[in-house]
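Q: I'm writing up a methods section and want to include an example of the input and output format. Could you take the sequence below and give the corresponding predicted structure tokens, formatted cleanly so I can copy it straight into the document?
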Amino acid sequence: MVNSTYGERSRVYLFGTGGTISFVGENRTDFANYSYRGTQLTIQEMLARVPEAEEVADVVAEQVINVGSTEVYPSDWLTLARRINERMSADGAASGAAVTHGTATLEETAYFLNLTVRDRRPVVVTGAMRPPSAMGTDADNNLLDAVRIAAAEQSAGRGALVVLNNEIHSARDVTKTDSYRVETFQSGHMGYLGYSDSDGQVVYYRRPERRHTADSEFDLAGIDELPRVDIAYAYAGADGTVIDALTDAKVGGIVAAGLGSGGSPAPFMAGLQRAIASGVPVVLSTQVGTGRVLQTRRFMEQGYIVADNLHPKKARILLMLGLTRTTDPSELQRMMLEY
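A: Here is the clean output for your methods example:
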């Protein structure tokens, strides 16, 4: 196949990890209880449902894990990232990789890959909001779109990508915003990057500016376990109880999901100050969904690292990786502003 989008017969590696896109419900109207029985399709069975994908590229399917997305852990991120790096390194002619994943933690896995896959070729993560056994499933179309995007030459150099509902997002910016709607993945003020559209074309309108993939400084060689970083969620009346417990547990770092522009109740902030005094790096993020946490005079004087506009869960991932290289707050702050 030769056209302006795909070039000459692309090869795409497709990695399965499970999630709604793989579950088989009891009947065609099972939109909520499909995971109860634990029956899942393998990635090979999922690919067999979409023969159109093989018209786009030679697809090499591999099952990494097969679980619901609530059961994806940092150890699985390491396994998946290493496998993608191995495949890409061994096959210089491949166009890219695609990953099927449950939507609950999809944005976290995608951002981890954005920071750790050391290749300009695309890694495209997709999932589904309706299982393949249900009426109106989005599973097959999303899988096809992921292969299309991974095979398209113009996808290179944009970092890890996420596609659902025909919309292509940067892994850094995207987040799940609704528990059941198919248009759940949104990128806030940043907006999505382009479409995998009805005419079969992959169309982009912008590219991410922050460091990623081939330009990343994070190397997984020799890393068997990531440092533990936890998120402390602020709310009216929140105090330092949870933060003190995390500090006593000797966690590697804390991300504070603050109110508004990053501030929180005084007792909560006092707990964060005790953590800093104990040598625990603390990153201030905001739980409001969009907008930056700024390097204000107060935050800088009190030793905080700010997350810029990274969501708390993604600031956590970046801090985990940052701590594999340094505990210097100034260096960790640089990373928050560059990635």
